[in-house]
Design a protein that fits this description.
By secondary structure, the chain is mostly beta strands. Helices cover 0% and strands 15% of the residues. Strands 1-2 form a two-stranded antiparallel sheet. The radius of gyration is 14 Å and the shape is globular.
């Protein structure tokens, strides 16, 4: 089936132990930036999903999705 993002922007489904890399250019050192994204766990498949955010290959945040994916 087809699934849409909440706002019509990029929607990615990951299954299993995988990674996603995105290069962002045009940032300046010393400035503060905000990164926003939604993450959800797959209903009835456990609750051990984990998102690790890295900057320059260094971990900066870890989160566990608190909402369940719904069609």
């Amino acid at each position: 089936g087809r699934s849409d993002s909440r706002d019509g922007r990029t929607f990615i489904v990951l299954h299993g132990r995988v990674s996603l890399k995105r290069t962002i250019t045009g940032l300046s050192a010393g400035k503060t930036y905000v990164m926003k994204f939604l993450a959800a766990e797959r209903n009835q498949y456990g609750n051990n999903e984990r998102v690790l955010l890295t900057v320059n290959d260094e971990p900066v945040a870890t989160m566990n999705p608190t909402i369940q994916f719904a069609k």
